[in-house]
Write a structure and sequence with these properties.
The chain has 487 residues and is of the alpha+beta class. Helix content is 42%, strand content 13%. The structure holds pyridoxal-5'-phosphate.
């Protein structure tokens, strides 16, 4: 078993199957031609890579019972696919996907833009564990929603989002994050990224030309601002959050911040800094854009509420399902003061006329039915274990390494003392060992701060949520070996 509760697709194991079968096979077998339908579904699942080589199939008896077909239909389909080279099996020993089974040309590689992202040696931040996506619950909600939606729901949606989803999200955000969320002041977006793009366009329309961002900070923030014609002005972050005196000196009227878990430095804004930031926004009538990208996950205490709750009139709150469910869903939200929200809705209309209706309705059902809370609890438990495993692995294999930042989110900052080699050499040795690592310096905006150093300690931004404790330990061991080479 992996620590996410699923069975790794190893030969001879079938436990953990039912959820996956629901997706691989037709929801309802046709009355006629059942054997052929099953063969087609299995063949496609193997060709597309959804069923990996070595994956064990359920026994013909189990699958027949699950699908409500006779056992002969399943054995016939298995035999046919064994003959075609997709499956392999022996009487009494089971059936599994053959090594080197025919794959659809390019299927597995063209579906993804970065196919090595999230692999066992990839410690870069940004991804949740995609294998935790609740496929069965999501697809069940999808089936219910598609069956239930009235015809008119498939027309052009309200660009601000489905009312039922806005109501569900407003309840969720006020309960979990302390957001002052009125469904009328909330809109559905394609992730935080689109929320920021919309806000950037609105600010530009209002005559702003520059927006403060955190330094170190997210390159996404700068890139999205640039796409809307705005210049990003980096403002330093210290142990308490954004330096508000430096922000005031920058003479901007908007700032993007990550107060719950600063990205990437990992600090939580202090109460004092939050109050100063809100006071600055009030005094200058500025807009604070809060990016609550991973605010649900806090492992040492209850999460601190959103900054927006302190001053809803000056703070626009943005978040998404990218860290809690999956970034591929492209579903997020924006809660903003009335005028800003109205202007953003006009922009959203001209951009894409609104998010897809079915996905919105599924998320609404998912949230209202308690599945979203369940998913967060499950991820919280596993990610905490993974963070603990990461801390233990560094203590065991790279003594003196300091894990910094609050116990939260999907990444940690780990600082390795100078004795583990000059930063540039250590990073090169790690890369040569196949590790994918991002130093904190990559997230600094001044060119001089970004250059690899010849001496001193090195801080790494380590994403851990997507890897099991075993994989994390193995990766840290590899890093320790690389550090010995570099020292
Ligand atoms: C700090 C931060 N905020 C927001 C985003 C984008 O999030 P979304 O997928 O919701 O657009 C990213 C992307 O990884 C990020 O690093």
């Amino acid at each position: 078993m992996t620590d996410n509760g699923t069975t790794s697709p190893a030969r001879g194991t079938t436990a953990g199957w039912p959820a996956a079968w629901e997706l691989l096979l037709p929801a309802r077998m046709p009355v006629r031609g059942r054997g052929r339908a099953l063969q087609t579904a299995l063949r496609e699942a193997v060709r597309s890579g959804r069923l990996a080589a070595g994956t064990a199939l359920p026994s013909s008896r189990e699958l027949a019972a699950d699908l409500g077909v006779s056992r002969g239909v399943v054995t016939g389909a298995y035999e046919q696919l064994v003959a075609e080279g997709y499956l392999t099996g022996r009487q009494g020993a089971g059936t599994w996907v053959a090594q080197g089974a025919p794959a659809a040309a390019g299927a597995a590689t063209t579906l993804f833009s970065e196919d090595d992202r999230g692999g066992p040696l990839d410690l870069r931040p940004g991804l949740p564990d995609l294998s935790l996506f609740p496929r069965a619950a999501w697809s069940a909600a999808h089936r219910r929603v598609v069956a239930r939606l009235p015809h008119r729901a498939f027309g052009y949606p309200d660009p601000r989002g489905l009312p039922v989803l806005r109501a569900a999200l407003a309840e969720l955000l006020s309960r979990r994050r302390g957001v002052a969320a009125d469904p009328d002041l909330l809109m559905v977006t394609s992730g935080v990224a689109q929320a920021h793009t919309l806000l950037g366009l609105v600010l530009h329309d209002r005559g702003e030309r520059a927006v403060a961002i955190e330094d170190p900070g997210s390159p996404e923030h700068r890139g999205l601002l640039a796409a809307t014609g705005l210049t990003a002005v980096p403002v330093p972050v210290d142990g308490e959050g954004l330096d508000v005196a430096a922000l005031a000196a920058a003479r901007v009227r908007a700032a993007i911040v990550t107060p719950s878990h600063q990205f990437p430095a990992g600090v939580a804004y202090s109460a004092r800094r939050r109050a100063e930031l809100v006071a600055w926004a009030r005094e200058t009538d500025a807009l604070v854009v809060e990016d609550d990208y991973d605010g649900d996950f806090r492992y040492d205490r209850a999460p601190v509420g959103a900054l927006q709750g302190l001053e809803p009139g000056q703070v626009a709150y943005t978040g998404s399902v990218s860290k809690s469910l999956a970034p591929g869903l492209r579903l997020g939200w924006l809660v903003a003061p009335a005028e800003i929200l109205a202007a953003a809705a006009v922009r959203k209309r001209t951009m894409d006329l609104g998010n897809p209706v079915t996905e919105q309705a599924v998320l609404a059902e998912f949230v209202a039915g308690g599945h979203y809370d369940r998913q967060l609890r499950r991820c919280q438990r596993l990610y905490r274990q993974r963070r603990d495993a990461l801390v233990a692995a560094f203590a065991a294999h790279l003594p003196g390494a300091r894990v910094e930042g609050i116990a939260a989110g999907l990444h940690a900052i780990v600082t390795l003392p100078e004795r583990y080699g000059p930063p540039a050499r250590l990073l090169a040795a790690a890369a040569a060992a196949g590790l994918r690592l991002r130093p904190l310096s990559d997230y600094r905006f001044a060119a001089s701060d970004r250059a690899p150093k010849d001496a001193g300690a090195v801080s790494l931004v380590v994403g851990y949520a997507h890897l099991t404790p075993e994989a994390l330990t193995a990766a840290v061991r590899l890093l320790a070996a690389a550090a010995r080479d570099a020292a």
